[in-house]
Amino acid sequence: MLKEQTHELIGCYANVWVRQRFFPVVGESIGGHKHKYDHLSLLTSGKVIVEVDGIEKEFTAPTFIII
Question: How many CA atoms does the CB half-sphere of 57 hold within 13 Å?
């Protein structure tokens, strides 16, 4: 039996990088990180809480998240 864990696929097309991240366990989280530029996330299923500068917002799929 395999233990479920977060995993990701990374690809690039026409100078656009795409990372697809899978969270098989409800309540799983990842540590934050910073960028000097905005980026777009596509939530395809479920819900996610995003925190930016101490402010939390919940998003429900399907939706785009601009950070």
Answer: 7
Residue at token pair 């977060």:
6
Report whether 44 contacts 62 (CB < 8 A). yes
Question: What pTM was computed for the model?
Answer: 0.69
* Digit-coded pLDDT (tens) for 3-47: 556 677 788 888 888 888 888 788 887 777 777 888 888 888 899
Assigned token pair, 35: 């960028």
DSSP characters over the chain: -PPP--EEEEEEETTEEEEEEE--STT--------SS--EEEE-SSEEEEEETTEEEEEESSEEEE-
